[in-house]
């Protein structure tokens, strides 16, 4: 029996398995530059974040209708449930779809249809977090927040993803401030490929409550001390870090050191269709490669519920 856990760092577009990609390509008459699923899988050899993102954004061409987004999310939730996930906070990238002419409403309503049935069908509670693409402009992020306004009953927070280096969190100060005014929760990818300074900026300038990845905080002992003291959760993704070459091999991942330092670590699958495993596969992998034993695995699972947005947020905590 897999440990019950929450998954907090999961891009729904990154759950697009080759089989579903081909099925949707056929359903929508979208040509794919791969002969079959085998050939597509062979393309999953990445040098860094950007080489992954090129394929990730390209394959999204097959996602066109509400039914496509519904099928994508339902397939993830079924797999997640089988891996012990009881609660999932799911990222999506609206700009990657609106830029292709797919309306914001199509994406959110399609995902929403699957999420609405998730507790009943899969026993998984869900939240939806929309991410701004940091390699797009701050104005585009603000326009995306504006487009989200009619759908805020479905969206609990904002995040920041895509190509990190050269796109520091401070670029998005205004849109995060506006999101806060709307009562949205705040997270951001930081310290995946970018420096520890980006983690500080995400905390100080954007006011995020969690850091996605945060791997490179280990290069800054004062920052580690602060993250420990303030119990800032890190949503680590060890299999992603190996596939995108943030670490050479899983055996060298700093997760055990980070846990020993007292950081509030969670482990997650990020883009499981591309990185070779869903979240319980990740639990098994860190056990095998890093020697994290049953007590450590339970700590990671407990942390995932502590770090989840299952409470009422900063305003409730201030009461
Ligand atoms: N990092 C940044 N952007 C992303 C990722 C990631 O791991 N996955 C999908 N978009
Ligand atoms: Zn991510």
Automatic annotation (TrEMBL):
It is an enzyme of class 3 (hydrolase). Residues 4-312 form the Adenosine deaminase domain. Substrate binds at residue 271. CDD domains: ADA. It catalyses: adenine + H2O + H(+) = hypoxanthine + NH4(+). Binds 1 zinc ion per subunit. InterPro entries: A_deaminase_dom (IPR001365), ADE (IPR028892), Ado/ade_deaminase (IPR006330), Metal_Hydrolase (IPR032466). The record marks 213 as: Important for catalytic activity. Zn(2+) binds at residues 9, 11, 189, 270. Catalyzes the hydrolytic deamination of adenine to hypoxanthine. Plays an important role in the purine salvage pathway and in nitrogen catabolism. Keywords: Hydrolase, Metal-binding, Nucleotide metabolism, Zinc. It comes from the Bacteria. The active site is at 192 (proton donor). Its EC number is 3.5.4.2. This is Adenine deaminase. It comes from Streptomyces flavofungini. Its cofactor is Zn(2+). GO terms for molecular function: hydrolase activity.
């Amino acid at each position: 029996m897999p440990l019950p856990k929450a998954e907090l760092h999961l891009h729904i577009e990154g759950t697009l398995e080759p089989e579903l990609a081909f099925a949707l390509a056929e359903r929508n008459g979208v040509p794919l530059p791969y002969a079959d699923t085998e050939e597509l899988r062979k393309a999953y050899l990445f040098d860094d974040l950007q080489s992954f993102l090129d394929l990730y954004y390209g394959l999204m061409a097959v996602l066109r209708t509400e039914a496509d987004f519904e099928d994508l999310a339902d397939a993830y939730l079924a797999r997640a449930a089988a891996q012990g996930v009881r609660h999932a906070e799911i990222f999506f990238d609206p700009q990657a779809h609106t830029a292709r002419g797919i309306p914001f409403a199509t994406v959110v309503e399609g995902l929403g249809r699957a999420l609405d049935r998730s507790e009943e069908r899969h026993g998984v509670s869900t939240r939806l977090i929309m991410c701004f693409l940091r390699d797009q402009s701050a104005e585009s992020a603000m326009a995306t927040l504006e487009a989200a306004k009619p759908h805020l009953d479905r969206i609990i927070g904002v995040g920041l993803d895509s190509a990190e280096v050269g796109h520091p969190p401070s670029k998005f100060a205004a849109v995060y401030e506006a999101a806060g005014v709307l009562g949205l929760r705040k997270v951001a990818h930081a310290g995946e490929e970018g420096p520890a300074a980006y983690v500080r900026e995400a905390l100080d300038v954007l006011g995020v409550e969690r850091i996605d990845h945060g791997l490179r905080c280990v290069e800054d002992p004062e920052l580690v001390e602060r993250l420990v003291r303030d119990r800032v959760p890190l949503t680590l993704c060890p299999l992603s870090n190996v596939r995108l070459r943030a670490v050479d091999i899983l055996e060298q991942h700093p997760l055990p050191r980070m846990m020993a330092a007292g950081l509030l670590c969670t482990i997650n699958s990020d883009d499981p269709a591309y990185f070779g495993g869903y979240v319980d596969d990740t639990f098994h992998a860190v056990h095998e490669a890093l020697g994290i034993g049953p007590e450590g695995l339970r700590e990671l699972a407990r942390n995932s519920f502590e770090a989840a947005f299952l409470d009422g947020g900063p305003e409730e905590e201030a009461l």
